[in-house]
Write a structure and sequence with these properties.
Layout: E1 6-10, H1 15-31, E2 34-41, H2 46-52, H3 60-84, E3 93-97, H4 100-111, E4 115-116
Parallel strand pairs: 1-2, 1-4, 2-3
Length: 134
Amino acid sequence: MFELKHILIPVDHSEGSRSALAAGLHLANRYEAIPHWFHAVPTIPQAIRDVLFPYAAMGEDIVEFENELTAYGNRVSERFADDVSSGNKKVPGRAVNGDPEDGIINEINRLGPDLLIMGASGQRGPRANQLGRT
C-alpha cells in the first residue's frame, strides 16, 4: 500500500501556489503526512549587483543583503502558510536564496518527499517563461 509521509509544496505566494498549498494541506491531513512549504528567493542578477554594490568591500554587503532577503522570504512564507492553513496547524518549511527551479530540485533531493504539489504557473502567470527567453 502507498504510504504518504512527506509532501513538498513550493510556494511563490501566487494564487496557484495558494491552491497547491491548500491541496497539500488537505492531503497531509487525510493521510497523516507532513506538509513542507518551500520558497526560493531569486538570486539578484549580476547587473543589479554591479549597480547597487559597486563599492562594497569584498562583496560583504551583497551577502548580508541576500541573507536579509532570505529571512524576509521565510517570514512571508510562514505567514502565507499560516493564512492558508487558517492557523490550525504550523506548517514547516524554509526559504533559500537561488534559482527557483534549481532550489526545488535541491529541496526534493534534500527532503525526499513522497509527493510534490505545485501550481501550474507562478506569480508572473503562464506566459512569463515563454517571453524574452532564448
